[in-house]
Amino acid sequence: MFLYLLIDLRMPDKLIVPPRRLLSFSFLPLFLLFLGLQPASCGGQEPDSLAPVVTPETPAGPRPTVPNGYFLFPIKPGKTNFLAASMGELRPNHFHGGLDIKTDGRVDLPVYAAADGYISRLKQSSFGYGNVLYITHPNGLTTVYGHLNHFLGATAAELLQRQYEKQSYELELFFKPDQFPVKRGEVVALSGNTGGSAGPHLHWEVRNAQDHQLNPLQWGGFTEIQDHVAPMLQAFAVEALGIEARVQGVFGKSVFVPKTPPLPNGGGYVWADTISAFGSVGLLVQGFDRFDGVWNKNGLQRVEIRINGQPFYRHVVDDVPFPDGTRQVNQHMDYEWRFLQGRQLEKLFVDDGNDLTMYTTGPRKAACAWRTGKYTPWKSCWPTRMAILLRCVLCCGANSRCTTRLALRW
Ligand SMILES: [Zn+2]
Fold this sequence. Notes:
Blueprint: E1 2-6, H1 28-34, H2 41-44, E2 51-52, E3 83-85, E4 90-91, E5 94-95, E6 99-102, E7 110-112, E8 117-124, E9 131-136, E10 142-148, E11 150-151, H3 153-166, E12 171-174, E13 181-182, E14 187-190, E15 201-207, E16 212-214, E17 229-240, E18 246-247, E19 253-256, E20 269-274, E21 277-290, E22 302-307, E23 310-316, E24 319-321, H4 329-332, H5 335-341, E25 346-347, E26 359-361, E27 368-371, E28 386-391, E29 403-409
Parallel strand pairs: 1-29, 20-29
Antiparallel strand pairs: 2-26, 3-6, 4-5, 6-15, 7-14, 8-9, 8-12, 8-13, 9-10, 10-15, 11-14, 15-16, 16-24, 17-19, 17-21, 18-21, 21-25, 21-27, 22-23, 22-28, 23-26
Bound molecules: zinc ion.
């Protein structure tokens, strides 16, 4: 599902003041502007092609390829299931690292091994994941099953014995590949509500060997979850990033809340008022996604910006390094705004100190240097359309039911 934000950006009546903390400023585009040449956009500040933002601290690494259908859905496989939470939702000090699968409001539903492998680890705890089981698969990925009510079979017996030995309820055990092999579809545990859980559900994760949390839905193949509901926009914001920057005439952040519902058939929202911006600014967005048949709000997981149809910014929360990277949620969202206003805005630019690799941007990391104004001699050099695309977690392509649109005028 997509949400479009159309912006009519006008050219400055004089040159842009050199940017800001994020931009590495070059005079060449300005020189070209004087020559009447067309640089890329605010737009003009970014190259056409996007390159992943990769830093030495968190190398992206190879993206694992998992055949469609490799993983079995661990709760009621083959039947309609519902999610209480999706991958990447913004939580206090972390991204939600997997799926929260509803269990009909009860505990003790059978939990199925998602693929062949072996039980590599389990932990019994009153906190966090509660009772949690890890199954490591031949492809190097590990599936994690959290908040369980009971372990089953040989692992449960092993745990009980070790608990008596250690005289401790809370215990974490690691196993070798030949100790507790499991087959795809084997019932390995019963679902529960243990640890930091607010209601019965299964927390299900996929991790790679480096403990990155990977979105289980990214490889497709699950008919159990359906998503044909367009995301909702709650608010968007424009923030001054450079000391020279102004939004609506002030240095700070202006938050805009659409008061009218989106137009039907993908027409999206219309923001009729003029917004003024000057200098280096960034965009932020607040919204949520819903899946079919449930009313709870899931997070936005994929957001893009396009300027004049060209890619400018993209993030997809499909791969979060655990546990260090996940804390950078506080750089990804506007922490101050959440703390002070209770509003959860996600930055659509890569801020200082954020070295997560889930972003794809140009070298300016999606901060824009632009200026709006009444006098627009250079207007033709500047973008006339900017689109923010909020994509559903399960991408349903060009289906208009998955499309929302916001039009802005500057
Ligand atoms: Zn969870």
